[in-house]
Amino acid sequence: MSDYNFAYLDEQTKRMIRRALLKALAIPGYQVPFASREMPMPYGWGTGGVQVSAATLTPEDTFKVIDQGADDTTNAISIRKFFEKTANVGTSEKTEEATIIQTRHRIPETELQEGQILVYQVPIPEPLRFLEPRETETRRMHALEDYGLMHVKLYEDIARHGAIATAYAYPVMVQDRYVMDPSPIPKFDNPKMEMAAIQLFGAGREQRIYALPPYTKVVSLDFEDHPFDPSKAEHPCALCGAEDSYLDEVITDDQGTRMYVCSDTDYCESRRATGHIGTEGTQPEEVFA
Amino acid sequence: MTPLLSVKNIEKRYGARIGCTGVNFDLFPGEVMGIVGESGSGKSTLLNCLAGHLAPDQGSVTYDRTSTGPVDTVTMAEAERRMLSRTEWAFVHQNPRDGLRMGVSAGGNVGERLMAVGARHYGNIRETSTDWLGRVEIADSRIDDRPSAFSGGMQQRLQIARNLVTGPRLVFMDEPTGGLDVSVQARLLDLLRGLVREMGLSAIIVTHDLAVVRLLADRLMVMKDGNVIEQGLTDQVLDDPQAAYTQLLVSSVLQV
C-alpha cells in the first residue's frame, strides 16, 4: 500500500479535480475544463471516470464498477482491482451497498439513494461535436443558449428514419439551461437521471468534467409530435424474468437464436436470489455450487 | 419616419490599413440599398460591420427593433445580436457553402432557423420548409437531399429560403449572384425581386454587378478605397455619374 498515494493520484491533482467538480456541480451541465492526467490505462477505457473516482474516494467508501451494466467484465474488474490496490477501499457488486459507483454506459436498475455518487466515463462530452466541429463555436453556442442546431439533428433523424433514431447518448436539457451529452447510456436510462444521487461525468481524453446535483431537472430533447420514447427490447429477461430492465441481446448460436438478459448483472442476480426465475434462468446458488 | 437602420460614421481598420471609413446613411423600411465598388473597396467589410460579424472601430449602427424600438447593435450584448440575426435579420453569403449546412438535408437547413427560435413541432416545421422550398422553386421531392447534391443556383436559392423562413425585416446580401451563370442569375434576380416586393423587405446588397443593382436597388452607394464617393437614387447615379470613379465604373460595363 505504501507504494501509492491514496487512490493513486497525488494530493495536488485530486485537489485540482475536486475544484473542477465543485464548479461543475455549481453549474449543472456546464463542461469544466481540467488538467487530465495520464493514467495507467488507455484513453477510452475510463481515464476520466477513474480520475473523478480517485478524487472523490475516501477510505470509508465502498466502491462498485459497472461496464455496460455488468460487474464482471474486464474493464469493470480491472478498475475495481486498481482501487482495491491503490486505495484499499472496500468494493462491492451490490448497488445498494456502494457509496461510489463508476459506470460505463449504464445507470443501475436499482434506484440510487441520497449519499451515493454515480461517476460516468465519458468519451465525448460535447453534444454538439458532430454538428459543429469548432470548439470555439460550440462553447459560444452553449454560452448564448444557441441550441437550434441540436434539434436539427433530431429533425434529420425523423426525416431519414421516420422516428428519432438516436438510441444512446441522447441529448438532454439540464435545468432549462445547458444541453448535455449524458455519455453513451441507452436512452432508456435518460429518465433515471433525475435522481437522488450525485452524478459526476469525467472525460479524460477531452479533459472535461461536468455534473448533475441531486434532483436536477433533466429533460430529453424531442418534438411535440415525436415525443421522447425510452425504448427497450420487447422481451422479459430470460434469466430473471424482469420486464422493466434494460436488456442485452445475446446471440447463442449461428442459427440466429438469441436470448435477452438484463444488462445490469447485480439486478438480475438479486432478483434470481429472491426467487424470480426466467425461462432459461437458474437460482444463483446452483450457478456457484 | 424612423429609419430601419441608421448608420453613423462607421470605421473599420485592419491595422494601419483602412477597411472602410466615414460611412453614413439611413435605410428606411421597404427600401433596397445597393453598395457597389471594385474589389477591395471595403464593401464586404462594411456589410460585415453592419450585420454584426465584425466589430467596427468607430461609429454606431442603430436598428429599429420591432419589440423595443431603436437599439445600437454595435454595443448590444452578443446574445441579443444573435437573436436579432436569426429573427429580424438575414444574411445571404456569396458562396452558399458558407451559409448552408452541407451535411444537413434541405428541409433541415430551412428548418434550422425555425427551431432556433423555438419551433418544436416536426410536422409544422416540415410543412413550412416544404412551402419555402416551393417559393424558391425547389421541388418537394428534394427536401431530404443534402445541399451537396444541388446545383450552384439551387444552393443559392436554398440559402435564400433558409434565411427568409422566419420572415426577417432586413436582409444583408453579399454578392448573391456571384459565381452563377447569366441565365441562372436572371432567374435568381427575378425571384429575389419578387420576394423583396412581396414581403416588403429592406435589403442591403453588396455587389460589383451594376445590372443587379439596377434591377433590385432603390438607392445606390459607390465605394472606393474604403470611402463612400457617391450616393443617390440608383437610376440617377448610374445614368448621370458625378464622381470620376463612378463614371469609369459605369463605362466599364460591356455592352452586348
From TrEMBL, chain A:
Recorded E.C. number(s)? Answer: 4.7.1.1
Q: Which UniProt keywords apply?
A: 4Fe-4S, Iron, Iron-sulfur, Lyase, Metal-binding, S-adenosyl-L-methionine
Which reaction does this chain catalyze?
A: alpha-D-ribose 1-methylphosphonate 5-phosphate + AH2 + S-adenosyl-L-methionine = alpha-D-ribose 1,2-cyclic phosphate 5-phosphate + methane + 5'-deoxyadenosine + L-methionine + A + H(+)
Pfam families to which the protein is assigned, alphabetical: PhnJ (PF06007)
The record's listing under InterPro entries reads: PhnJ
Q: Which GO terms describe its molecular function?
A: 4 iron, 4 sulfur cluster binding; alpha-D-ribose 1-methylphosphonate 5-phosphate C-P-lyase activity; metal ion binding
Any GO BP: organic phosphonate catabolic process
Family to which this protein belongs: Belongs to the PhnJ family.
Provide the function of this protein: Catalyzes the breakage of the C-P bond in alpha-D-ribose 1-methylphosphonate 5-phosphate (PRPn) forming alpha-D-ribose.
Protein name according to UniProt:
Alpha-D-ribose 1-methylphosphonate 5-phosphate C-P lyase
Record the organism.
Answer: Halocynthiibacter styelae
Automatic annotation (TrEMBL), chain B:
InterPro entries for the chain? AAA+_ATPase, ABC_transporter-like_ATP-bd, ABC_transporter-like_CS, P-loop_NTPase, PhnK
Q: Which GO terms describe its molecular function?
A: ATP binding; ATP hydrolysis activity; lyase activity
ABC transporter domain location, by residue? 5-250
Which SUPFAM superfamilies does the record associate with it?
A: P-loop containing nucleoside triphosphate hydrolases
- Please verify whether the record's keywords include Lyase: yes
A Gene Ontology biological process in which this protein takes part is: organic phosphonate catabolic process
Arranged from A to Z, the UniProt key words for this protein are: ATP-binding, Lyase, Nucleotide-binding
Q: Which PROSITE patterns match?
A: ABC_TRANSPORTER_1, ABC_TRANSPORTER_2
NCBIfam families assigned: CP_lyasePhnK
The protein's name:
Phosphonate C-P lyase system protein PhnK
Q: From the UniProt record, report the name of the gene that encodes this protein.
A: phnK
